[in-house]
């Protein structure tokens, strides 16, 4: 039958279009990566806020320490100056004891805060490195997605033109049979037979069908299982 080879060409192009479209649909658009980056950045901003808090606590403690130290010095000067009454001495000594214990407390607080600052700085640095890495990964994925999509669209356009040319050259009644079948068979109207298997339904074709395809390769034959048009490449006949 005339037009059979055009139908074969058309089916091959339709198959290619389908696979490129699937490829474009399954491309990683970076959404997952972006989500991961957002999660990292959120942790990072919490860690940075905590770092700021600990830093300001340290400043605060430093101020307290200096204030207490200078008061201590003043008291000590008073204590050792001449003509101080025993009563005043004991008052000063009591005050000094209280200042010393306050200084101890402040020093302990400073040590703790310094340790905390060290820890939080380490985790801030770690998170920052993770964030930088993820940002770069996202850029790569996004760029690849863009490139592949553009490439795919160009290829689709080319195939679309080829497809139109073949459709124009194909017998209209054959074409409408093809189109009707395509509608019924999820876009796959005509499929190849390889190793006696229909690639549309993955079922083996009957011996009778195999024989009639071989004896009349230019006729349209249908898979005895899924009903799609089938063809065998010449090299395999
Ligand atoms: Zn089949």
The dominant shape is rod-shaped
Instruction: Please outline the major beta sheet.
Output: 4 strands, mixed
Strand content: 5-15%
Which ligands appear in the coordinates?
A: zinc ion
Low-confidence stretches: none
Strand order of the largest sheet: 2-1-4-3
In the CATH hierarchy, the third-tier topology of the largest domain is known as Methane Monooxygenase Hydroxylase, Chain G, domain 1
How many angstroms does the end-to-end distance come to? 17 Å
The total of helices stands at 5
State the domain count: 2
Mean pLDDT rating = 94
Set down the secondary structure blueprint:
Layout: H1 4-25, H2 31-80, H3 86-169, H4 172-184, E1 190-194, E2 197-198, H5 207-215, E3 221-222, E4 229-231
Parallel strand pairs: 1-4
Antiparallel strand pairs: 1-2, 3-4
Helix pairs in contact: 1-3, 2-3
The structure holds zinc ion (ZN).
The site of zinc ion (ZN) has 8 residues, from loops.
Please tell me about this protein's structure:
By secondary structure, the protein is mainly alpha-helical. The protein has two domains: 28-151, Methane Monooxygenase Hydroxylase, Chain G, domain 1; 171-236, no CATH class. It has helices spanning 4-25, 31-80, 86-169, 172-184, 207-215, and strands spanning 190-194, 197-198, 221-222, 229-231. The protein is rod-shaped and about 130 Å long. The model has no long low-confidence stretch (mean pLDDT 94). Zinc ion is lined by residues 198, 200-201, 203, 223, 225-226, 228. The site of zinc ion has 8 residues, from loops.
